Amino acid sequence: MTGPVGTDDVVSQGVIAPMVEAAAIEITPSREAEVGGHRVRRALPRRARRTVGAWCFIDHMGPASTSGAAASTVAGIGPHPHTGLQPVTWLVSGELRHRDSLGSDQVIKPGQLNLMTAGHGVAHAEEGTAYRGELHGVQLWVAQPDETRDGPAAFEHHAELPRVELAGGATATVLVGELDGAGSPARRDTDHAGFDLSLQPGRSVIPVRADFEHAVVVLEGAVHVDGSAVEPGRLGYLSPGRDELVVEARAPARALVVGGVPFPSPIFMWWNFVARTREEAGAAGEAWNERGPRFGEVDSALDRIAAPVPPWG
């Protein structure tokens, strides 16, 4: 479920600056928030850690039951805009329906990937389906570089993704980028990667790129990285300089690993926009509220969400 980003997530001016590299794993707590009627753990952005490569937003949603709920109330977020980013949706269980101003209408299920490129501007809604049961997943944002952030919007759905068997009994599903020679078909505008690890008890070794910084977000169970425990509600950050990631699990667990070359540009995040300045973000909010052609219209029965007044006035 997408955003929005508020002042609790970033400093008031919204500037995201690179962090000083650390030799060992750095553990930061997620912030609890409510999005679309569901509790989420927001691992990125946080005041202590703003980006990991081009990844600038991670919401871990659920697990939560949708049994007995009306279809119109299940995980619904009405039409809202985005600029300068790629929302990535990945489910562990349940279903969601994506509709956007490009005309896309796509139900996503576990093991499938939705990736939307916002570019200069796009709008979408996230709706529930007739599915009843556990809803559990993660939504991520990837900041677009200067070369593509003002380009055209696009949407893609990938029903199948490559899987890699790793030393120690772990299985990785490659969401974006490459892992151990297996490449995802998903678009990427920067040098970054993301994969879902299914872990068995024991020690697993994951080959990674030494020029990438990485983050570990546990979806189920708990793991140990560099001797430190990482569990749901925590993000484990690893600075560049290592060519493998050693993960230990004492019981079956599931973890998301994202990484990339440190993002080259300072970015400004406000509401549902990834920009470079607050003026740029504010102009996008005004364009959305004025209902001009920039973002288009979404065919959704859910209420359109207005942009709030920027905190800088």
Question: Notable features of this structure?
Answer:
single chain; 313 residues; mainly beta; Jelly Rolls; 7-stranded antiparallel sheet; 1 helix; 47% strand; globular
Count the strands? Answer: 27
Radius of gyration: 18 Å
Shape: globular
Number of helices: 1
Supply the CATH superfamily name.
Jelly Rolls
Q: What's the quick description here?
A:
By secondary structure, the chain is mostly beta strands. Helix content is 4%, strand content 47%. The protein has one domain (15-289): Jelly Rolls, CATH 2.60.120.
Structure notes:
The chain is mostly beta strands. It has one domain (15-289): Sandwich (Jelly Rolls). It has one helix spanning 278-289; strands at residues 15-16, 26-29, 31-35, 38-44, 55-65, 77-82, 85-93, 96-100, 105-108, 113-117, 122-127, 134-143, 154-158, 163-165, 171-176, 178-179, 182-183, 192-199, 202-207, 213-220, 223-225, 228-230, 234-238, 244-249, 253-260, 267-270, 273-275. The protein has a seven-stranded antiparallel beta sheet, with no helix packed on it. A hairpin with a 2-residue loop joins strand 26 (267-270) and strand 27 (273-275). The longest helix is centred in the C-terminal third of the chain and has 12 residues, at 278-289. The two termini are 27 Å apart. The model is unreliable at 11-22 and 69-73 (pLDDT under 50).
